[in-house]
Design brief:
By secondary structure, the chain is an alpha/beta fold. The protein has one domain: Rossmann fold (3-Layer(aba) Sandwich), CATH 3.40.50.720. It contains 8 helices and 7 strands.
């Protein structure tokens, strides 16, 4: 459908070197967008660039540490210079640290919260400034988690940061609407990736699966439709919205 077409749009995807970010870059490119792919691990970005361009797309690798305001300003400036106005931000960079709350060190907390919340704010703020300065409006999609909607053990910092990101999404949406900038959040449930596959197939993963009403974990492709909805004009009257993609897990206690 034309509503989901991103032809002529320039997108910035953070955390693009692996996992969801890498997949999202492919999806957006397939929908016609030119992509600035940003992360700390540039060698992985170069491989992703080759894959996208082999399929006829355009990808620009950019080194980015979302926790560093100077790095964020440089990355957004580079994307604008090389691709043109940024129409879309997929604010995806994130980390997790699995430890009991009584064993969580201050530096562990800071790394998770600084990446998942402060870093997301820095990138969203700088990209929004760019959109306001050029006057073309835009679209910000924050990649949150259902753990921002409900808590669980062993990942206190992650839960806190993602909950903060959801309310940051709402606050920015209310404030930036006057500039024709939409801000929404995608909140995935448990998605099977190379990093967590072994855990999700373990006994603990099987116990977790029993709490998912659809009785399966998500595959990366399950996020494609919701991502394109939020990224495109199909959601042009949506802002401040949280879209959960979790097989019904957030619908139950």
């Amino acid at each position: 459908m034309t509503l989901f077409d991103l032809t002529g749009k320039n997108a910035l995807v953070t955390g693009a070197s692996s996992g969801l970010g890498r997949h999202f870059a492919h999806v957006l490119s397939g929908a016609g967008a030119r992509i600035a792919i940003a992360a700390r691990r540039t060698e992985r970005l170069e491989r992703l660039q080759s894959e996208i361009e082999a399929q006829g797309g355009r990808a620009l690798p950019i080194e980015l540490d979302v926790r560093d305001a100077a790095s964020v300003r440089s990355a957004v400036g580079c994307a604008e210079t090389e691709l043109g106005p940024i129409h879309l931000l997929i604010n995806n960079a994130g980390v997790a640290d699995s430890k009991p709350v009584l064993e969580l060190a201050e530096e562990d907390w800071d790394r998770v919260v600084d990446t998942n919340l402060k870093g997301a704010w820095l990138v969203a703020q700088e990209t929004a400034r760019h959109m306001v300065r050029l006057g073309h409006g835009g679209n910000i999609v924050n990649i949150a988690s259902i753990l921002g909607l409900r808590g669980t053990g062993q990942v206190a910092g992650y839960c806190a940061a993602k909950a903060g990101l959801l309310n940051l999404t709402r606050a920015m949406a209310a404030e930036l609407a006057r500039h024709d900038i939409r801000v929404n959040a995608l909140a995935p449930g448990y998605v099977v990736t190379d990093i967590n596959r072994d855990f999700l197939e373990s006994e603990a993963g099987e116990a977790l699966l029993r709490r998912v009403p659809q009785r399966r974990f998500a595959e990366l492709g399950d996020l494609d439709g919701p991502l394109l909805l939020l990224a495109s004009d199909a959601s042009r009257y949506m802002t401040g919205t949280v879209v959960a993609v979790d097989g019904g897990q957030s619908a139950i206690v």
